[in-house]
Design a protein that fits this description.
The protein is α+β, with helices and mostly antiparallel strands. The chain folds into 2 domains: 7-85, no CATH class; 118-147, no CATH class. Helices cover 45% and strands 11% of the residues. β1 and β2 (103-105) form a beta hairpin. α1 crosses α2 and α2 (29-36) crosses α5. The structure holds zinc ion (2 copies).
Length: 148
Protein backbone atom coordinates (compact mmCIF):
# COMPACT_ATOMS: atom_id res chain seq x y z
CA UNK A 1 0.00 0.00 0.00
CA UNK A 2 1.41 3.37 -0.94
CA UNK A 3 1.28 6.14 1.56
CA UNK A 4 -0.49 9.21 0.36
CA UNK A 5 0.70 12.67 1.19
CA UNK A 6 -1.28 13.97 4.14
CA UNK A 7 -1.62 10.59 5.82
CA UNK A 8 1.16 11.54 8.20
CA UNK A 9 -0.78 14.58 9.38
CA UNK A 10 -3.98 12.55 9.69
CA UNK A 11 -2.07 10.04 11.85
CA UNK A 12 -0.78 12.90 13.99
CA UNK A 13 -4.32 14.16 14.52
CA UNK A 14 -5.39 10.61 15.33
CA UNK A 15 -2.64 10.37 17.89
CA UNK A 16 -3.59 13.72 19.34
CA UNK A 17 -7.23 12.71 19.70
CA UNK A 18 -6.74 9.17 20.88
CA UNK A 19 -7.25 8.99 24.60
CA UNK A 20 -9.92 11.70 24.44
CA UNK A 21 -12.59 10.25 26.70
CA UNK A 22 -15.37 11.78 24.60
CA UNK A 23 -14.58 9.45 21.71
CA UNK A 24 -16.29 6.05 21.69
CA UNK A 25 -13.96 3.06 22.02
CA UNK A 26 -13.28 1.17 18.84
CA UNK A 27 -14.35 3.92 16.48
CA UNK A 28 -12.52 4.36 13.17
CA UNK A 29 -10.75 7.53 14.22
CA UNK A 30 -8.36 7.66 11.27
CA UNK A 31 -11.16 7.06 8.75
CA UNK A 32 -13.27 9.79 10.37
CA UNK A 33 -10.40 12.28 10.26
CA UNK A 34 -9.72 11.55 6.60
CA UNK A 35 -13.40 11.88 5.76
CA UNK A 36 -13.77 15.19 7.61
CA UNK A 37 -10.49 16.63 6.33
CA UNK A 38 -9.86 15.39 2.81
CA UNK A 39 -7.16 17.96 2.14
CA UNK A 40 -3.66 18.14 3.52
CA UNK A 41 -3.88 21.87 4.15
CA UNK A 42 -6.92 21.55 6.42
CA UNK A 43 -5.27 18.65 8.27
CA UNK A 44 -2.19 20.74 8.98
CA UNK A 45 -4.33 23.65 10.18
CA UNK A 46 -6.45 21.34 12.30
CA UNK A 47 -3.42 19.91 14.03
CA UNK A 48 -2.09 23.41 14.72
CA UNK A 49 -5.45 24.57 16.07
CA UNK A 50 -5.98 21.51 18.27
CA UNK A 51 -2.50 21.82 19.72
CA UNK A 52 -3.24 25.43 20.69
CA UNK A 53 -6.86 24.95 21.77
CA UNK A 54 -6.93 21.60 23.51
CA UNK A 55 -10.58 21.79 24.57
CA UNK A 56 -12.00 23.09 21.33
CA UNK A 57 -13.78 19.82 20.53
CA UNK A 58 -16.12 20.00 23.49
CA UNK A 59 -16.22 23.66 24.44
CA UNK A 60 -18.41 24.85 21.56
CA UNK A 61 -16.10 27.88 21.37
CA UNK A 62 -15.66 29.65 18.06
CA UNK A 63 -13.38 27.67 15.76
CA UNK A 64 -12.64 27.64 12.05
CA UNK A 65 -14.73 25.53 9.62
CA UNK A 66 -12.28 22.62 9.39
CA UNK A 67 -12.58 22.10 13.15
CA UNK A 68 -16.37 22.22 12.86
CA UNK A 69 -16.27 19.59 10.09
CA UNK A 70 -14.11 17.31 12.20
CA UNK A 71 -16.48 17.70 15.17
CA UNK A 72 -19.54 16.99 13.01
CA UNK A 73 -17.94 13.81 11.64
CA UNK A 74 -16.81 12.68 15.10
CA UNK A 75 -20.32 13.24 16.43
CA UNK A 76 -21.76 11.16 13.58
CA UNK A 77 -19.27 8.45 14.49
CA UNK A 78 -20.62 8.38 18.04
CA UNK A 79 -18.80 11.10 19.96
CA UNK A 80 -22.08 12.71 20.93
CA UNK A 81 -20.74 14.80 23.82
CA UNK A 82 -18.66 16.96 21.50
CA UNK A 83 -20.00 20.40 20.67
CA UNK A 84 -20.06 22.13 17.32
CA UNK A 85 -18.52 25.65 17.42
CA UNK A 86 -21.03 28.50 17.77
CA UNK A 87 -20.77 32.00 16.41
CA UNK A 88 -19.89 34.25 19.38
CA UNK A 89 -22.32 36.92 18.13
CA UNK A 90 -25.50 35.08 17.07
CA UNK A 91 -24.82 31.83 18.98
CA UNK A 92 -25.75 29.77 15.91
CA UNK A 93 -24.02 26.55 14.89
CA UNK A 94 -23.08 27.78 11.45
CA UNK A 95 -19.78 27.76 9.56
CA UNK A 96 -17.54 30.47 11.02
CA UNK A 97 -15.77 31.47 7.86
CA UNK A 98 -14.24 34.71 9.06
CA UNK A 99 -11.39 35.15 11.49
CA UNK A 100 -11.45 38.38 13.43
CA UNK A 101 -9.06 39.29 16.24
CA UNK A 102 -8.73 35.93 17.99
CA UNK A 103 -12.22 34.71 17.23
CA UNK A 104 -14.30 33.38 14.33
CA UNK A 105 -17.55 34.80 13.02
CA UNK A 106 -20.30 33.67 10.65
CA UNK A 107 -20.81 35.60 7.45
CA UNK A 108 -23.79 37.78 8.54
CA UNK A 109 -22.17 38.74 11.85
CA UNK A 110 -18.86 39.46 10.20
CA UNK A 111 -20.30 41.73 7.54
CA UNK A 112 -22.35 43.54 10.17
CA UNK A 113 -19.17 44.25 12.10
CA UNK A 114 -17.10 45.38 9.18
CA UNK A 115 -19.70 47.67 7.59
CA UNK A 116 -20.86 51.00 8.95
CA UNK A 117 -22.06 54.40 7.77
CA UNK A 118 -19.16 56.38 6.33
CA UNK A 119 -18.76 59.81 7.96
CA UNK A 120 -17.84 61.42 4.65
CA UNK A 121 -20.12 59.92 1.99
CA UNK A 122 -22.89 58.70 4.35
CA UNK A 123 -23.16 55.37 2.61
CA UNK A 124 -23.13 52.04 4.44
CA UNK A 125 -19.82 50.66 3.32
CA UNK A 126 -17.08 48.34 4.29
CA UNK A 127 -15.11 50.21 6.96
CA UNK A 128 -11.54 51.04 5.97
CA UNK A 129 -10.55 53.02 9.07
CA UNK A 130 -12.07 54.02 12.40
CA UNK A 131 -9.38 56.53 13.26
CA UNK A 132 -10.35 58.74 16.24
CA UNK A 133 -13.78 57.14 16.15
CA UNK A 134 -14.48 58.48 12.64
CA UNK A 135 -15.72 55.80 10.27
CA UNK A 136 -14.43 56.06 6.73
CA UNK A 137 -15.01 53.79 3.75
CA UNK A 138 -12.18 52.75 1.49
CA UNK A 139 -12.60 55.33 -1.25
CA UNK A 140 -13.13 58.21 1.20
CA UNK A 141 -10.09 57.37 3.30
CA UNK A 142 -8.12 57.12 0.08
CA UNK A 143 -9.43 60.49 -1.14
CA UNK A 144 -8.68 62.15 2.21
CA UNK A 145 -5.16 60.83 2.23
CA UNK A 146 -4.56 62.49 -1.12
CA UNK A 147 -6.03 65.79 0.06
CA UNK A 148 -3.71 66.02 3.04
ZN1 LIG B 1 -23.14 34.91 13.76
ZN1 LIG C 1 -17.19 57.14 2.23
Amino acid sequence: MTKRKGDVTARQIEQFLSGNSALPLGMDLFGTIVKALPYEVSRTKTLEFLTKHTYSLRSGDPAPPYIARLIVELKLAGATSLRVPRCPECQKEVPLLYAKSDTYLCRPCYSEQITDVCARCNRTQRVATRRDGVVLCGSCSHALRREI
